[in-house]
Design a protein that fits this description.
By secondary structure, the chain is α/β, with parallel strands linked by helices. It has helices at 3-11, 14-22, 38-49, 61-68, 87-95, 114-123, 135-170, 179-193, 198-210, 220-223, 231-238, 240-248, 258-263, 284-298, 310-319, 327-339, 341-361, and strands at 30-34, 54-58, 75-78, 105-109, 127-130. The chain folds into 2 domains: 25-147, 3-Layer(aba) Sandwich (Rossmann fold); 171-361, Orthogonal Bundle (Hypothetical protein af1432). It has a 5-stranded parallel sheet with strand order 2-1-3-4-5, sandwiched between helices. Helix 1 (3-11) packs parallel to helix 12.
């Protein structure tokens, strides 16, 4: 399969569906408002559009289902009492749609008895607001539900990506089991040492999860070879950074991880791949992850050599400052080492590796 075909296949899979869903952020999200009172509909639309949302409208459940054939909103807000298909019937119909289960659904209605609220909550509706409602209440409810939806989808996305990445890593042999988790743990320690903010740390996590995803395009005989690779095999192996970048490009949620995926094998002295970038031309996330990736590789048993001790790997990292690695990243790694952070992660990784070995040989 070509890399283009492979990328398209992934985007058409469950992996691709998760990416589409997580593209929408809270601000600027598309909302579907279903309300049969024209004045109320205009008021809701004006409030939400005035606060940066994109709003589609429908006056009953039937029209709302037609609108859902054209777009997949980030949230649906509906009245209950409407002519034709009411809000309850609409809610049930939405939840039966392939992509409908994940869309936050809010009832905004004049039906505010305890029995009405209980019945709606029993159905599983995400929120229930009684009219009259202030603009502040409306916006708070919408933003809270969108934020919660994004948080849930992010967790699901990471789980899907981790499963895929670990499956790909496992093709290369037992030494790569838990490689993704180990590289992420070392990377996060370095990121915290450098005082990166939460957004940067999250981008780094995606980069760690996906840094070797392009190995799916490398022949298994190359990945699992027990001896040194020849020139042609190395050329095949080096392509994994390009394959990985192609696989995730075009997905806005992963844009920040793409430089890490493509450039984590560049060298500070310009002798790396795929683009022979040097120094600060190498994206900073890739410079950081290069150390985490290399340290875990050196401290893992490989088909063609035994693992180095953590001390030996640490000394090798230091020796490659200003050659293979960014000296500022090496200094951060050294501080983490002397504080004991690296040793704690290494011990945890080794413990997990033993458990995995017991499982695979059982």
């Amino acid at each position: 399969m070509t890399i283009i075909g492979l990328a398209k296949g992934l985007r058409d899979s469950a992996f691709g569906i998760y990416l589409v869903k997580t593209e929408t952020q809270v601000n600027g999200a598309t909302l579907l408002i279903v309300e049969d009172d024209p004045a109320m509909l205009v008021a809701f639309r004006d409030i939400l559009e005035g606060n940066g949302f994109v709003v589609s409208t429908a006056t009953n459940g039937t029209d709302a289902l037609v609108a859902l054939q054209e777009e997949n909103p980030a949230l649906i807000m509906s009245d209950i009492s409407m002519p034709g298909m009411d809000g309850i019937e609409l809610y049930k119909a939405v939840r039966q749609r392939p992509n409908g289960a994940a869309i936050p659904f809010i009832f905004v209605t004049a039906r505010g008895t305890r029995e009405d609220i209980f019945a709606a909550k029993a159905l599983g509706v995400d929120d229930y607001i009684t009219k009259p409602v202030t603009s502040r209440e409306l916006l708070a409810a919408v933003r809270a539900r969108l934020q919660r939806s994004d948080e849930i989808m992010l967790v699901q996305l990471k789980a899907v990506l981790r499963a895929m990445a670990n499956a790909i890593e496992a093709r290369a042999g037992e030494y790569t089991l838990r490689h993704v988790e180990a590289v992420n743990a070392y990377s996060q320690a370095l990121g915290l040492e450098l005082e990166w903010d939460q957004d940067d740390l999250e981008s780094l996590e995606f980069g760690a999860i996906l840094h070797d995803v392009g190995k799916i395009g490398v022949p298994e005989k190359v990945l699992s070879k027990t001896g040194p690779l020849n020139e042609d095999e190395w050329a095949e192996m080096r392509m994994h950074t390009i394959y990985g970048a192609h696989m995730i490009e075009g997905n806005p949620y992963l844009d920040s991880a793409l430089p890490v995926v493509r450039h984590h094998h560049e060298r500070w002295d310009g002798g790396g791949y795929p683009d022979q970038l040097a120094g600060e031309d190498i994206p900073i996330g890739a410079r950081l992850l290069a150390i985490a990736d290399t340290f875990h590789a050196m401290t893992s048993d490989r088909p063609y050599r035994a693992a180095l001790s953590a001390q030996e790997a640490f000394e090798e990292i230091l020796s490659q400052s200003e050659q293979q690695f960014d000296p500022a990243m090496v200094e951060a790694f050294e501080r983490c080492w002397h504080r004991g952070d690296i040793a704690k992660i290494h011990k945890s990784v080794q413990s997990i590796a033993v458990d995995d070995s017991m499982i695979t040989t059982a």
